[in-house]
Write a structure and sequence with these properties.
466 residues; UDP-N-acetylmuramoyl-L-alanine:D-glutamate ligase; Protein-Tyrosine Phosphatase, Chain A; 32% helix; 20% strand; globular
Length: 466
């Protein structure tokens, strides 16, 4: 069914939207705009539910709030749209499936709403960065008609972009396992699974169920579609089958018939062709090699030239607050990893700067949750100076001293920390904010901490703007 025909088919149809939040509100508004008769069911009581109140006041929506009454399903709904965060064990979802009522997530509606080419990206790690990278690359693609829209789990509801897209356009969707699990009709032209590690097992129940949810991305693909798959994780997927044309990528193999990284020459390769050099890129870290390979594969499948692929990837600074390149000042490169609120995230950041000539000034500290940070010590070989703040500053100071670091300063606020980091640095250094701590002892959230860090760096670069 073409998109225009589907849009017309839901006019005056009764549709149940289960669960609000940002995605649910978007679904309600777009379905109403298409002439559907929408009922909203959200568990949060109405007097505490600003989203539901707004839909009543501004959209004249019918809202049932405060519980999930299964009796609501006695009404003649055409289908249910489930918020991705609501599990399939929810009594409303269980009953809907029992009576044969179709249950969709927002991404399936987006697929139905538009005839645009859909590129779907999922995985345990790297899907947000990869989705953003693909969007940046395709914005430089001189061979493609139409526009490229980025959305989905990345924070922009999929229907918000599907409603704008024409057949000549592309939707680049970040897809979570929550959105894919149970998806019965979703069909991207290009699908990618960056990698699979244990995650969200409380929702899925087991690793097998989690992998199966991710594999739903390819369930409806044909041989005319593509599945970009991590060749370094072949064993993870077991005997699962796909009708799609598989395009492998590898960050460790010497050569494959797909996208691969030559570790000896630091070149990104497509089959036997050199596409770009790692030295042209701003994003650090081995984990970003996989993200770049997936992005490059998408570009090659869409016929994007090597020059346009390089132009897009070389200009990408990273997702904001996630090991984001901010600026280079006086030969110092500043990176913002404010979202690193735990040891694992900061280990990834520190390990990203292990080159023979790398030297790091590390900005760390924040809310003290009482956890140990000793495991960070094994990843501090390139750290020669530290600037510490927040409740956990003393803990980080002890860690630095145990590693023999003598250049350690303390700062009350991030603006002071930036200046002290600059004072402790030398030309060629990396100045890295990766706190390994939450921000709540001093800042409302990690975004606020990161934004203030960026502004402090901008002030260094443009002192006359103050």
């Amino acid at each position: 069914m073409q998109a225009a025909e589907w849009r017309e088919s839901i006019r005056n149809k009764k549709i149940l939207v289960l669960g609000l939040a940002k995605t649910g509100v978007s679904v309600v508004k777009h379905l109403q705009a298409l002439g559907a008769i929408v009922t909203v069911n959200d568990f949060k009581p109405l007097d505490e539910n600003k989203e539901a109140q707004s839909l009543i006041d501004e959209n004249n929506a019918r809202v049932v709030a405060g519980s999930h009454p299964v009796s609501l399903l006695d009404e003649d709904f055409a289908f249910m749209v489930k918020n991705p965060g609501i599990p399939y064990t929810n009594p409303m979802v269980v009953r809907a499936l029992e009576i044969g009522l179709p249950v969709y997530t927002d991404v399936e509606l987006a697929d139905k709403m538009t005839d645009a080419t859909i590129i779907g990206i999922t995985g345990s790690n790297g899907k947000t960065t990869t989705t953003s990278l693909v969007g940046e690359m395709l914005s430089h693609a001189s061979n493609l008609e139409g526009q490229s829209f980025v959305g989905g789990n990345i924070g922009i509801p999929s229907l918000d972009i599907a409603s704008q897209a024409s057949e000549a356009d592309r939707l680049i969707l970040e897809l979570s396992s929550f959105q894919l699990m149970g998806a019965s009709e979703f069909k991207p032209h290009i699908a990618a699974i960056t990698n699979i590690y244990g995650a969200h097992l409380d929702y899925h129940g087991s690793m097998e169920e989690y992998i199966s949810a991710k594999w739903r991305i390819t369930a409806n693909q044909t041989s005319e579609d593509y599945l970009i798959l991590n060749a370094d994780q072949k064993s993870v997927f077991g005997e699962r089958q796909t009708n799609a044309t598989i395009v492998p990528f590898s960050s460790t193999s010497q050569q494959i018939d797909g996208a691969w990284y030559d570790q000896a020459t630091e070149k990104f390769m497509w089959h036997e062709e050199v596409v770009l050099d790692r030295r042209d890129l701003l994003l650090p870290g081995n984990h970003n090699v996989e993200n770049m390979l997936v992005t490059m594969a998408v570009g090659k499948l869409l016929g994007v030239s090597n020059e346009d692929i390089k132009a897009g990837l070389a200009q990408f600074h990273g997702v904001k607050h996630r090991l984001q390149f901010v600026a280079e000042i006086d030969g110092r490169r500043f990176y913002n990893d404010s979202k690193a609120t735990n040891n694992d995230a900061t280990i990834t950041a520190l390990d990203s700067f292990m080159g023979p000539n790398d030297r790091v000034v590390w900005l760390a500290g924040g809310l003290d949750r009482g956890n140990t940070i000793d495991e960070l010590g094994a990843h501090m070989d390139k750290v020669h100076a530290m600037v510490l703040s927040g409740e956990s500053a003393e803990k980080f100071q002890a860690l630095g001293q145990a590693k023999g670091i003598t250049a350690i300063a303390k700062a009350e606020w991030i603006e002071d920390a930036v200046q002290k980091a600059l004072d402790l640095s030398n030309e060629g250094d990396i100045i890295l904010l990766s706190p390994a701590s939450a921000s709540w002892d001093q800042y409302p959230n990690f975004e606020n901490r990161g934004d203030r860090y960026i502004k402090a760096i901008e002030a260094l670069a443009n002192p006359d703007s103050l």
